[in-house]
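Lab channel / #folding
Pinned by the channel admin:
"Please post every new chain as: sequence first, then the structure tokens as a reply. Keep commentary short and put observations after the output so the thread stays searchable."

First post following the new format, from NK:
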Amino acid sequence: MKKKNILFFYLSGRKEKISGSIPYAEEMFYGFHYFNENNYQTDIIEFSTNKGLFNKIYFLLIEKKLRNILKLPIYWSFLTSYSNLKQLTKSNYAIFSNNRVGFASLIIISIARLYRKKPVTLCFVMGLFSRVPKYRFIIFFQNILLRYFTNNMDKLIFLGKAEYDFACNKYPKKMENFYILPFSVDLKIWNVKDNIKKKRQILFVGNDGFRDFKFAEEIANNFKDLNFVFVSQQINKSLLSGNSKVYNGSWGENSISDSELSDLYNESYMTIVPLKNSLQPSGQSVTLQSMACGTPVIISKTEGFWDNENLNHNENIVFTNENDIETWKKHIEELLVDTEKYNKLRNNGLNTIKTKYDLNKFSQLIEKILLN
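Reply from TO:
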């Protein structure tokens, strides 16, 4: 029996990780390894950074301006090419790891559809509906493109329930093509290491625009007796006091490996995730990775928080309703002195990850949705 072909679209970094020798977590591949091991032919397309002169000018003069005006992930020049179109039309299925690569593929998807060679398309959605243009008449054009996007994707998987509910209300006729599937993590990498002891150290990880970086810096500067570790490209090291260390890291770069980050989670006493309010399910992967390593998490409770059913305040996670120093200091200091509460959060968090956020089950559900 001939294998079905699945084409995965990513931003960058996946091919490099697969071909390299450094161990890595598999959750950011959105099922690639599972399909590759279960009788599917898999291939990868990533954002192209080596664009020709015309595409570079087009990107700067048109796409960049449209992106800023419409508040949409318009990167058509990064994926529109004859070779990508040809590969797409030869595939049975196409999986887009986020709405940025999904939107960037709209032109080749449209051409494939025109020639009736479009594969079944599935796109993961994170924050697509979270940014609103300044002027009402611009919202009209944004809605046209959003509707075109939803009409050209056969299936949309939302990682947060708030955004899923928003999309269902906005496009009720497309509801049967919308799915909710909480993100999961790779427990082969993110796990408790008994040989690493906890330190009086607080960890911050992340680069996305919905993190509150300035507030994270403010928290660190208000705890002179604690050590803070930041893994981020968005932290201003010059504004931090001597108790902070900064790794200028991101997922797509190997300045810090997943195994090294797992060690940081294990040796840190807690992880903080201060967020700006948004419909986007921000902080998801960091929270789950930290919990899987037995390190409790304090996180801002935002409109787009992804799982209000399995994550509960003071049971397996700590929520804050506002980003002010006194509120966060209270929660941090309480975890430092209340051993009973700390162990409760740690143990409940580990159990929640193992029972609710299994990566293999996550991948199986992707397959079920794709074939449905």
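NK: The chain is about 40% helix and 15% strand.
TO: also worth noting, The chain has a mean pLDDT of 93.
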